[in-house]
Amino acid sequence: MIKKQDKIDPMAQNITQSLRLIDTHTHFDVPEYDEARVQCARRASEQGVLHLVLIGYLARYFGRMVQTHEFVNALEAAPKSHLAFGLHPLYIHEHHENDLLILSDFLNNHHSIAIAEIGLDTYHKSLQSADIYAKQQRFFVEQIKLAKQYHKPILLHIRKSHADVLKILAEQNYRADNQGGIAHSFSGGEQEALAFVKRGFKLGITGQITNPNAKKLRRAAMAVFAKYGADAFVIETDCPDMMPLPCQHLGSFNEPANLPHVLDTLALLFSMDKQSLAEKLWQNSCQALQTKW
Ligand SMILES: [Zn+2]
Q1: What is the pLDDT of residue 29?
Q2: What pLDDT score was predicted for residue 250?
Q3: Contacts for 126 with CB less than 8 Å, ≥ 6 apart
Q4: What's the CA-to-centroid distance between 116 and ligand 1, angstroms?
Q5: Where on this chain does a divalent metal cation 2 bind (predicted)?
Q6: Ligand 1: centre distance to CA 117 (Å)
Q7: Cα three-residue angle 195-201-205, rounded to 5 degrees
Q8: Whose CA is closest to 72, among 56, 49, 106, 103?
Q9: pLDDT band at 138; cut points 50, 70, 90
Q10: Cα 225 to Cα 263: distance, rounded to the nearest angstrom
């Protein structure tokens, strides 16, 4: 604990204070944080995480998201919370038609910064059958339509379905340079990465990048960096998942305070100083989320 009269190196203090970060993708409402949400929020704010986005996945948890959002925003030392409601493709078996109406309802009654997380996922066998994949595509299209209707950016979840997501975005004439958007926790190859950035999306980079064995991700990130520079990226924890490698001894789940590890690795890969990369990522996040912070 630092008491007021303790001497603090003014340079060190300045450096910590001027690093400001946005965690563009969190599930900070999940019960993993129930015992430690206040401490996690405080740690995040100490690490310069000034904003975090709470991402939706199942309609039955939208209410819990609102409660967490209000709880976090009532704390003194905490990032500012923002809501993004959406129906996640991984949970497609659990979504009902009525959930789209519930989503509209929440969009009408709460400030949602984006529609998230939406997209397609064919990673597991249970997601690949024709009827389930058709249902995923239908929910994705309906949510793109809602994003247009409500003028919201979309934050995409895409696993082993990059070509189909690009096809649907083209059919729906959705461009993220007009409307904002992030390809969250990007997992595709170089060409796919370039295609999403060409469509105006920022690539969301998680703690996965801290692992030197994440060769495909690092190659895709470097290919995009070579063509577009740091403009094409935002960072996220995707907590409680995607624990950065340097934190894996700390506990069983990730938290927003671990976000600087993603910044550190990107700064090394891009040969940029952390300060200017953090500032660039801040601007990119604001652009992707169509906001001014
Ligand atoms: Zn997520």
Answers
A1: 98
A2: 83
A3: 93, 132
A4: 8
A5: 157, 184
A6: 7
A7: 95
A8: 49
A9: very high
A10: 14
pLDDT in tens, 182-197: 999 999 999 999 999 9
**Looking at domain 19-288, which CATH architecture does it have?**
Alpha-Beta Barrel (3.20)
Helix, strand, or coil (residue 185): coil
Pick the closest to residue 264 from 254, 256, 272 (CA basis): 272
Burial of residue 120 (CB within 10 Å: 0-12, 13-18, 19+) is: buried
- Contact at 8 Å (CB) between 83 and 108? no
CA geometry: angle at 199 spanning 197 and 205, to 5°? 30
Instruction: Tell me how far the alpha carbon of residue 56 lies from the centroid of ligand 1, in angstroms.
Output: 8
pLDDT of residue 4: 41
For the segment 73-115, what is each residue's pLDDT rounded down to a tens digit? 999 999 999 999 999 999 999 999 999 999 999 999 999 999 9
Q: Where are the domains of the chain?
A: 19-288
Q: How far, in Å, is the centroid of ligand 1 from the Cα of 149? A: 23
Instruction: For 204-232, write each residue's pLDDT tens digit.
Output: 999 999 999 999 999 999 999 999 999 99
Q: What is the distance between the alpha carbons of residues 10 and 62, in angstroms, rounded to a whole number?
A: 43
25 is in an annotated binding site: yes
Cα–ligand 1 centroid distance for 236 (angstroms) = 10
Spacing, Cα 24 to ligand 1 middle (Å) = 10
pLDDT in tens, 5-15: 444 444 444 44
